[in-house]
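can u do me a favor
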């Protein structure tokens, strides 16, 4: 029994150390970007020695990839269409509001990912690949949600709308980064949901056979 308790404590301590490291890395990368982040800075911010960071992560690139993945997991949890038989508009607006709030609460995924995506490097960081990988997961999830809201829509139309929706969300996020609190991100996402539903109706009417 003592050995079992000791093992649980070690696991809990390891998880807490990992959380502290990821929190510190997210803060620094948000302030300084990918290139401006170093293991030494993360060590100083989280209060753990560099050896502890290297025990959890092979290098800075793997650490930043983990920051992106953790933030994405929290963000993706909002990508669930509310159940029930309510009108599509109410369900879509509710979903959009939760996605906007998730971006405000966990912006690291999109902030770091967009920075890495826009950069061109001789050797692609694994953090950039991780962002593109998880973004594709979000795209597929959104295609499914659009299909659920508008079951008569063709698959190609749903994919087109999903790309459009995510592109607009990128723009909203950048506008918020530029304008700060003067930009109502939740309001933009609510408006976005209504515009998307109008686009769904137009596509379905113009191409009834897909």
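np, heres the sequence
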């Amino acid at each position: 029994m003592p050995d079992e308790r000791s093992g649980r404590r070690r696991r809990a301590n390891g998880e807490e150390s990992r959380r502290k490291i990821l929190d510190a890395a997210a803060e620094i990368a948000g302030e300084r970007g990918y290139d401006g982040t170093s293991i030494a800075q993360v060590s100083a911010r989280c209060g753990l020695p560099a050896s502890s960071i290297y025990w959890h992560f092979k290098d800075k690139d793997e650490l930043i990839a983990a920051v992106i993945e953790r933030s994405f997991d929290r963000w993706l949890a909002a990508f669930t269409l509310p159940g029930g038989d309510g009108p599509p508009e109410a369900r879509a607006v509710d979903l959009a509001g939760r996605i906007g709030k998730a971006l405000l609460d966990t912006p690291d995924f999109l902030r770091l990912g967009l920075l890495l995506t826009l950069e061109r490097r001789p050797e692609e960081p694994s953090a950039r690949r991780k962002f593109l990988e998880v973004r594709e997961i979000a795209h597929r999830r959104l295609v499914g949600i659009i299909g659920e809201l508008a079951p008569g829509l063709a698959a190609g139309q749903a994919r087109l709308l999903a790309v459009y929706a995510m592109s607009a969300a990128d723009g909203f996020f950048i506008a918020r980064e530029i304008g700060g609190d003067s930009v109502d991100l939740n309001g933009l996402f609510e408006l976005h949901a209504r515009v998307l539903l109008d686009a769904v109706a137009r596509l379905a009417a113009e191409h009834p056979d897909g």
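The first helix runs from residue 2 to 32. hope that helps!!
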